[in-house]
UniProtKB/TrEMBL annotation:
Metal-binding in keyword set: no
Keyword Hydrolase: yes
Keyword annotations of the record: DNA recombination, DNA-binding, Endonuclease, Hydrolase, Nuclease, Transposition
Residues in Cas12f1-like TNB domain copies: 293-351
Single GO molecular function: endonuclease activity
Family: In the C-terminal section; belongs to the transposase 35 family.
Domain Probable transposase IS891/IS1136/IS1341: 156-265
Name under which the protein is recorded: RNA-guided endonuclease InsQ/TnpB family protein
Lineage, uppermost ranks: Bacteria, Bacillati, Actinomycetota, Actinomycetes, Micromonosporales
Pfam families the record matches: Cas12f1-like_TNB, OrfB_IS605
Length: 379
């Protein structure tokens, strides 16, 4: 598991971190250049090139070799993953103005002493210990957010503790008007609209940014940076509110249900639709991720059900409608058995019925396999 803490670096430590990030970013961009020229930059070849580059350049030797090797390892994994996943692009250049700093250190590159994080190169940073680490960390990732705050994310071993067994199952269908519709209305997650509430203030900050935007090649003014920081604060506040709400909701669902059937909904396609802003405000992906992680740690039976035909199939008789239902049709009516229910409520019941009929394959977090491969047929 990852345990994240706030850091309080001084001016000297922050300058050293940014200098280290500049070296790592240069190495990443060099690896991207090698890939674009037709070469195959494996991790072994990249490490050999790093050794030669450190021997030639003194400014590169001033940095930590551990952090530089880790950025090359991350690039190698990203490149390998791009070949395996269809539609995933190759690693791109990290531009200074568009990429936030992120540094990785293994055990050879950091220590914890007297409540402070000591990095290779003599960098010492105070840590805000909001809770104790359950074990000794094996690695740490230092990252900076859009507000300029630094965080340390430690990887630790945490023995899972199964929650007490309870009776009950629940099916969850994702949506936009209601973020999560369940088979039990008491556990529905309504659309909160945190970004919508601060839309006026956010628009004001963004208009200030537009008026004060510097010409290309000129340094940004203090007024532009103030407006940019205010917009980042509003985005961060809404994200934290969504995360807090998702954690409370996921805890309630996991604590009271042994079997959790979740629609394996991927909201990426909504980014190109007219519902993009509202879908982003609903934060469906964050709520789904929080529910799966919390359910897995608690030892619950979490099953991912493919979303195909869940809104077209009756949860009572499993008969599939012949025509697709438009988004304007919110009531599902089965022509075979006459079952009538809300569109999302029917989908949630169908998702749960898929799991209860034991059409899933393996233990733990898994995908349910329907009889037709893509949808359900009548039993």
């Amino acid at each position: 598991m990852r345990y994240t803490y706030r850091l309080r670096p001084g001016a000297t430590a922050e300058a050293a971190l940014l200098a280290e990030w500049g070296r790592c970013r240069w190495l990443w961009n060099e690896a991207v250049h090698q890939q674009k020229t037709g070469r195959k930059p494996t991790f072994a070849k990249l490490c050999k090139m790093l050794t030669e580059a450190r021997a030639r350049n003194g400014w590169l030797r001033d940095g930590s070799q551990v952090a530089q090797q880790q950025i090359l390892r991350t690039y190698s994994l990203a490149l390998t993953h791009s070949f395996k996943v269809k539609g995933r692009g190759r690693p791109a250049l990290k531009k200074r103005s568009k990429t936030l700093p992120s540094l990785d250190y293994t055990l050879r590159g950091f220590t914890l002493k007297d409540g402070r994080l000591r990095l290779a190169g003599g960098i010492i940073i105070p840590v805000v210990w909001s809770r104790n680490l359950p074990s000794e960390p094996s690695s740490v990732r230092l990252l900076q957010d859009s507000l300029g705050h630094w965080y340390a994310s430690f990887v630790v071993r945490h023995d899972p503790v199964d929650a007490p067994e309870v009776d009950g199952s629940i099916g969850i269908d994702w949506g936009v008007s209601t973020t999560a519709t369940t088979t039990d209305p008491a556990y529905n997650l309504p659309y909160q609209g945190y970004r919508k509430r601060c839309a006026a203030e956010l628009s004001k900050a963004q208009r200030k940014m537009a008026r004060r935007r510097p010409p290309r090649g000129h340094a940004a003014s203090k007024g532009y940076l103030r407006a940019k920081r205010q917009a980042a604060k509003l985005h961060k506040k809404a994200a934290r509110q969504n995360q807090h709400t998702a954690r409370i909701w996921a805890k309630a669902v996991v604590d009271n249900h042994q079997t959790i059937a979740v629609e394996d909904f991927k909201p990426t396609f909504l980014a190109k639709s007219t519902m993009a802003r509202k879908a982003a405000d609903a934060a469906i992906g964050a709520a789904k991720r929080e529910l799966i992680e919390r359910g897995t740690r608690a030892g619950r039976r979490v099953v991912l059900v493919p979303p195909a035909y869940t809104t077209m199939t009756c949860s009572g008789c499993l008969t599939r409608a012949k025509q697709r239902l438009g988004l304007g049709v919110r009531i599902f009516v089965c022509e075979s058995c006459g079952y009538t229910a809300g569109r999302d409520e029917n989908a949630a019941r169908l998702i749960l019925a898929t799991v209860e009929r034991d059409r899933a394959g393996v233990d733990g977090v898994r995908h349910a396999i329907t009889s037709s491969g893509s949808g359900l047929r009548a039993a």
